[in-house]
Amino acid sequence: MGIDSDLPKLVEEHSIAKGVRCLVYRTTDNPTVAVHGSIRAGTALEPKNHHGIAELATRLLIRGSRKLRPEKIADSLESIGAAINFRNTPDAILFQARMTTPWMKRVLDILAECLTKPSFDRRDVEKEKEELLTDIRLRDDDPTRRGIRELVAMVYPQNHPYGQDKFGTAESVKNIERANLDDYFDDHVAKAPVIIAFAGQFKSDQALKWSGRTFGEREDSAAMKDVSGTPPNSYKKEIVMPHKSQTEIMMGTLAVARLDPDYEPLNLLNAILGELGFMGRLGQRVRDKEGLAYSCTSFLNAGLQGGNWTALAGVNPKNVDRARKLMEEEIKRVIDEPVLEQELEDAKENQTGSALMELESTEGIARTSHNLVHYALGLDYFAKRRQLFRRINVGQLQEMAGKYLQASRTSTVIAGPKAKA
Length: 421
Known about the structure:
By secondary structure, this protein is α+β, with helices and mostly antiparallel strands. The chain has 16 helices and eleven strands. α2 (53-60) packs across α5 (122-140) and α10 (263-274) crosses α11 (276-289). It is globular.
């Protein structure tokens, strides 16, 4: 077995305080430290009347605290080759840091300031709002990003938290004031559960004391929004963008949450359809064999409250109908016929090998151990998955295809210029 199966013995788990969990992996042969953590206050949990506020607040975290201006933070980090970054996701605000061991205290002190005492300076708020509004305009002018945004909104039930784009809308962002950010931080970010993972060369006490001092006590669990509702019908939508040269074809359907028992076989099926080799069966048929697409692939997104599956291709506008038909044929083929045994074995090897590659660095170990706890999979997940993989057969993958990828469940968005007659 490898490090993936040994994680329960290598990573210490600590409950620092109510709602604060800390993971520690120590090594003596790499004088660096990686930190990967989350605060359960992402887009899916933001106030309904302030869409985009989680994204805006996350961007502002690096813009200084009540003690540190952004210029001071940048200078302090750059002078020692360290880095801190923040990212908003549907389920959580993620934070990461990397540094060499001698500078751990300095970097953690800066990280604590950003995470617990953001200044939300009025000038910074207005500047970041303009940046976010620019990103919204760019998103809406990009066929792939705009198409996926429309597709996601179509496949999730109405008011599902994952149906909301993390950027929000131009109107919702313009209406966010500094006071709204203060309220959001105090009412959500400052109270939400925290998971933080450390990996590298450091003293455990230093990491644990910092975690307790920084986050204090939190709520045991973040309030999950109601995700019940009837899955929408299959829809088709065309977005005409005459100034573009390429058309994007996107097909998608409602899938599963990360902890759902169907996730593993469905993920293996997706690897066969859109990942293995060069973009899987979809890429081999539509791109390599027929030469109709610049790219053709698929991916499975799974979060705490649900998930979605998407297939997409970038094509010449004149090839849209033919490429779409071939994509539909390949999807129908995995419904009608079991995949090959060798394809399934290749998919299992791909997933096992990817995990081992991720765990080759301290950053990968911190990120992986965090994610296993975040999704309630457990540090023994990889050992359990090896056993599960031995039981998954081609019949189960065909069952997943029939359950999730039927045409009656699948919506389609075409974004780009119309083909010239």
